[in-house]
């Protein structure tokens, strides 16, 4: 059975939308995806570093459209691991696990990995929105489109714009 | 640079001693290593499952003799990752990270991995006290001697009885 390593932020959890919502609540200004194309989240949203250390930021992030249904189908056909580089934000660890338990209850604790560097991940397929993770990986790679990577060339990666498209490639 | 995946409980953190101390405090009975040879911790200490869910259990575990010095030397010569199957006990995640920060301050958050199954670990060398982890691993394996594995045959693994011995093999 092939093994897939699936990122959380920007792939399952809509952290862009969460940053945008929190920014809107604080400033009254709504930044649309096209306003922040090519910008890192810390550049796009000046208070982003404050937000990610605020309780609730990760716990209440919206789920990306279609991810639950496709994930459930992938979980039947592949060995699925959620791999989140969450170690930078220690207080997020229990929040992220609770979030997964709520929105992806078919996943078990055995399938969750919280790490710093993803260099240590052994799998056949990786789905991620960051080149720094995909570029280190020797298997098949799907680049999940996000505002921060939207303008960058795809490189050796297959860019996908939705979970429906992920399903089309992998199911 | 070769990569080493190093377990926490039973390799860096002396959870056997912690179980034994907590059991002594509750019951007045001191179980020595030889009293629990070959027993899983949950068999050796009837309230073990309660202890591991109690705040402070992991945060205050003793450090295994010699581990800090040898780890610091390994960290200069290898790509070191701490890999702990901590996901079963979510409340332990921040405690384990704080424990590492206190006792192994030369390690960065990039080097820490909290997972469920260790099947996903890609490294050259693994140091662990559990056969279930070492048996899945295709690289070089060091079995760290602990009461629970003490009576089992070594299998394909190199058994080590101390961090001094780890240093002898790897430095």
UniProtKB/TrEMBL annotation, chains A, B:
A Pfam cross-reference name: NT5C
Domain of life: Bacteria
GO biological process: pyrimidine deoxyribonucleotide catabolic process
GO terms, molecular function: 5'-nucleotidase activity
Residues annotated as the enzyme's active site: 7 (nucleophile), 9 (proton donor)
Record-stated family: Belongs to the 5'(3')-deoxyribonucleotidase family.
Name of the protein in its database record: Putative 5'(3')-deoxyribonucleotidase
Lineage: Bacteria, Pseudomonadati, Bacteroidota, Chitinophagia, Chitinophagales
């Amino acid at each position: 059975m092939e093994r897939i390593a699936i990122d959380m932020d920007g792939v399952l959890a809509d952290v862009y939308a969460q940053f945008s919502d929190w920014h809107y609540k604080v400033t009254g200004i709504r930044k649309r995806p096209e306003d922040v194309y090519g910008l890192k989240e810390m550049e796009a949203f000046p208070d982003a570093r404050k937000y990610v250390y605020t309780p609730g930021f990760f716990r209440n992030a919206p789920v990306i459209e279609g991810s639950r249904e496709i994930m459930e189908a992938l979980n039947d056909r592949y060995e699925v691991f959620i791999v989140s580089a969450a170690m930078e934000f220690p207080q997020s660890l229990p929040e992220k696990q609770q979030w997964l338990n709520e929105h992806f209850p078919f996943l078990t604790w055995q399938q969750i990995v919280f790490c710093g560097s993803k260099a240590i991940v052994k799998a056949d397929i990786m789905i991620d929105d960051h080149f720094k993770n995909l570029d280190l990986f020797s298997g098949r790679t799907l680049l999940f489109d996000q505002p921060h990577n939207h303008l960058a060339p795809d490189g050796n990666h297959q860019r996908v714009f939705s979970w429906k498209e992920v399903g089309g490639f992998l199911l």
